[in-house]
UniProtKB/TrEMBL annotation:
InterPro entries (UniProt xref): Calcineurin-like_PHP, DNA_Repair-Maintenance_Comp, Metallo-depent_PP-like, Mre11_N, UCP033093_metalloPase
MF (Gene Ontology): exonuclease activity
Signal peptide: none
Family matches, as Pfam families: Metallophos
Regions that span the bilayer: none
CDD domains cross-referenced by the UniProt entry: MPP_Mre11_N (cd00840)
Superkingdom of the organism of origin: Bacteria
Stated name of the protein: DNA repair exonuclease
Length: 382
């Protein structure tokens, strides 16, 4: 018997640092990945997909957002999808799960597990599902504890599914909310405990696993992986499950820290590094660059052209922290002409930069923009 384990779809998630076009693409892919999960289940011969919480980003999504993932799952009538609430979409009285049931929006092949009790998963394999149910965003009690005493038939294959923080894994406040005992699988006789909440793949022990989100949603995703699902194969109720990880994500998120630029060669190398992430599909790249350094006038213009214009147009998102400064001296003023108001303004700004003080940074930025604008005027005139 096989299942697909996934979690943290967070349909309807927003990303404040991207423009409207990129936001639309990211949100659409969080829906499109459902089709890839269904296709994976078919290819692997898995009749069941377990979604370990946080199907939705918010408890009050729009009507369209509420129904969209249901319609994606409806397309795979031969697969049964099992959903539980997470901390983002807890089972509250007027929450998403109540709305779905009230509006008759749940397809026949989708099962909402809203009570903490064993349910038959697969009769042919005597497999039973034990879901843990969050009824509020945060709880201090271990909602998987009931599994220890939950009754299933003799020789049953017991599979738990939960959303929370395994005690002893994670840190700080995160571990204090929605705690789950690290030995729950052993205590409850579970063949497998499918976990959600951690956005990268993480195997706690042989039988307790976080699948991670199927479509990466942040720079520096915690844990190894992200953008994948787990196929779990069972040889029996006591045999260790066999895991295989499968990439399902389309977008690739990368952060480049402490990038120091001092020459045109550095700039060209930076563009190459970003494009090399996905050379044939640069539109799948989200890159965050932490940039510093000092560049001459011509190299600064090259940076603006290659990075801020060309590269930004090629990738889905280019997030810049910092910017290279202008290393301009008196000799650079000659490109502005021997005299005139532009030259005089540049001389005044350069003097202010060289004098230092509180206004030096503002003067540096103004001088940088002046040179860039002057260069743009020259190129346009030519």
């Amino acid at each position: 018997m096989k299942i697909v384990h996934t979690s943290d779809w967070q349909i309807g998630r927003t990303f404040s640092f991207v423009d409207d076009e990129a936001l639309g693409a990211l949100q659409a892919e969080r829906l499109n990945v459902i089709q890839r999960i269904g296709t994976l289940a078919r290819q692997e011969g898995a009749a069941h997909v377990l979604v370990a919480g946080d199907v939705y980003e918010h408890e009050t999504p729009s009507e369209r957002t509420l129904r969209q993932p249901m319609e994606r799952m409806r397309q795979f009538a031969d697969i049964t999808w099992h959903l539980i609430p997470g901390n983002h979409d807890a089972h509250t009285p007027q929450g998403v799960w109540t709305r779905l049931l009230r509006d008759n929006a749940v397809p026949d092949n989708v099962r909402l597990h809203l009570q903490p009790e064993p349910v038959m998963l697969d009769a042919a394999h005597n497999a039973w599902l034990l879901p843990a149910i969050l009824q509020r965003r945060h709880t201090l009690s271990d909602l998987t504890s009931y599994m220890d005493e939950a009754t299933t038939p003799e020789g049953a294959l017991r599979i738990g599914v939960a959303h929370g923080s395994v005690v002893g894994f994670g840190n700080g406040e995160e571990a204090q909310h929605n705690p789950i005992a690290i030995d729950r699988a052993a205590q409850a006789g579970l063949a497998y405990l499918a976990m959600g909440d951690w956005h990268g793949f993480c195997q706690i022990n042989d039988r307790t696993v976080y699948s991670g989100t199927p479509e990466v949603d942040r720079f520096g995703t915690g844990g190894a992986g992200g953008g994948e699902c787990v196929v779990v194969a069972f040889d029996g109720p006591t045999a260790p499950p066999r895991l295989s990880r499968h990439r399902t994500g389309r977008f690739v998120w990368r952060k480049f820290e402490n990038v120091v630029l001092t020459s045109g060669t550095d700039i060209e190398a930076l563009e190459h590094r970003v494009r090399a992430i996905a050379p044939e599909q640069p539109d799948t790249i989200l890159a965050w660059l932490e940039v510093s350094g000092m560049l001459g006038v011509d190299d600064l213009a090259l940076y603006e052209n290659l990075i801020e214009r060309r590269l930004r147009s090629a990738v889905t998102c280019l997030r810049l922290s910092g910017t290279p400064g202008l290393a301009a001296g008196p000799d650079d003023l000659d490109m502005l002409g021997a005299s005139g108001p532009v030259r005089e303004t540049a001389e005044a700004l350069l003097a202010q930069v060289q004098a230092g003080g509180a206004e030096a940074a503002v003067a540096q930025e103004a001088l940088q923009r002046l040179f860039l604008l002057w260069g743009e005027v020259r190129r346009t005139a030519a």
